[in-house]
Write a structure and sequence with these properties.
about 150 residues; mainly alpha
Length: about 150
């Protein structure tokens, strides 16, 4: 709990950073921007909350599942595509530093170190992809089931 309290400024900075990315992705309405930035903040909140698990890939997977569900729900509530919400929400989880250090080591000629370091961002990217795929598949199945039930009533 103490760790979460210490991270509150980081959560606020994450919200502001994601909010600024909304301008790049051309969100046109402030409520959409706030909802998308909240998703980005939630991704980091749940990542930090899962730290006691001691497994980075599990942290990324759980956080991605939660924010993917958030993006799908926001898309249904706001009647717009889920992808912009998902892109903004996933930004804090992207393994940018790992990719940078992998490239840096590779350019220095440390091939073995680069490969070892490169496996980390690949694992993170895999966790992100699996989390998004799981939630997207579940939401599509639910949507088809609901549409089938509506068609039977008609």
């Amino acid at each position: 709990m103490t760790k979460m309290i210490e991270e509150i400024p980081v959560f606020i900075y994450t919200f502001l950073a994601c909010f600024s990315f909304c301008f790049i992705f051309r969100f046109h309405k402030i409520p959409h921007m706030i909802a998308a930035a909240t998703g980005g903040m939630l991704s980091w909140v749940f990542y930090v909350a899962c730290m006691p698990l001691g497994n980075d890939l599990a942290q990324y997977l759980i956080s991605t599942i939660i924010v993917s569900a958030y993006a799908e729900v926001m898309a249904r509530v706001r009647k717009c595509p889920a992808m912009p919400y998902l892109v903004i929400a996933i930004l804090p989880l992207l393994p940018g530093a790992g990719v940078y250090y992998t490239m840096s080591l590779g350019l220095e000629g440390n091939r073995m170190d680069a490969v070892a370091k490169g496996l980390e961002p690949v694992g993170i990217a895999g966790s992100l992809a699996v989390g998004i795929l799981l939630v997207s598949t579940v939401f599509r199945l639910i949507y088809r089931h609901v549409q089938g039930a509506r068609a039977e009533k008609s």
